[in-house]
Design brief:
It is a single chain. About 40% of the residues lie in helices and about 15% in strands. β6, α7 and β7 form a beta-alpha-beta unit. The chain has a seven-stranded parallel beta sheet with strand order 3-2-4-1-5-6-7, with helices on both faces. The radius of gyration is 16 Å and the shape is globular. The chain is of the alpha/beta class. The two termini are about 15 Å apart. It has one domain: 3-Layer(aba) Sandwich (Rossmann fold), CATH 3.40.50.300. About 45% of the residues are buried.
């Protein structure tokens, strides 16, 4: 078994799981931590990002291996910290059982949340659906636009149903552009969202 586990989990795609995973992995490497990634999603967003990064010769080097949800413990790389990107949804009982085991084994589980009603309603059921009440699961608001009327309501709703991360990731085009190029805003000085992403890593580092 490896060292510490940071798992990014969510019930649907498009909430920013892979983007947060890439930024947390790079932030850990920049802090001198022997960290690696594990991509359990068949869409390969995390692994594909690592391939693009390697091809462009970016430093620090970030290794991401691939695996299946049901065999996550077999695929774990040997590292001080492993950042795990999971597929969206809860597809089958076998799938749910594996994610439950992963969540309970993880030192921290981040659940990205978009500040929108339907998405939030499904998010708060994750601990119950997985049977992971008591696991270290933290909701983190992503793609936040300050001043939106629904934002305070989203914060209150999530905080009522679990732990809400005090760091919110703003909606910035640079976040997505950097990921497409095999980079991250965490390492790009002056990038929109960099300060918040580094603050999120500070939160994570304090927990794992």
């Amino acid at each position: 078994m490896t060292g510490r586990l940071l798992t990014i989990l969510g019930p649907k795609g498009g909430v920013g799981k892979s983007t947060i995973a890439t930024n947390m992995l790079v932030s850990a490497r920049l802090d001198g931590i022997e960290a690696a990634g594990l991509d359990l999603d068949s869409q390969r967003s995390f692994a594909g990002w690592a391939e693009t990064r390697a091809a462009s010769g970016r430093e620090p080097v970030c290794t991401v291996v691939e695996g299946r949800v049901t065999d996550w413990n077999v695929a774990l790389p040997d590292a001080e910290l492993v950042v795990v990107d999971t597929p969206p949804g809860l597809e089958s009982e076998e799938h749910v059982a594996a994610l439950r085991e992963l969540a309970m084994r993880s030192d921290l589980v981040l659940v990205p949340a978009l500040p929108e009603g339907p998405s939030l309603t499904r998010l708060v059921t994750i601990p119950a659906e997985l049977g992971t009440i008591g696991a270290a699961i933290v909701f983190v608001l992503n793609r936040v636009v300050k001043g939106r009327v629904r934002l305070p309501q989203a914060r209150a709703f999530l905080a009522e149903h679990g732990e809400l991360c005090p760091i919110e990731i703003p909606s910035r085009e640079q976040v997505h552009w950097a990921t497409d190029a095999g980079s991250t805003v965490a390492e790009e000085a002056g990038s929109g969202g960099r300060e918040e992403m580094l603050a999120l890593w500070g939160f994570v580092a304090g927990r794992v």
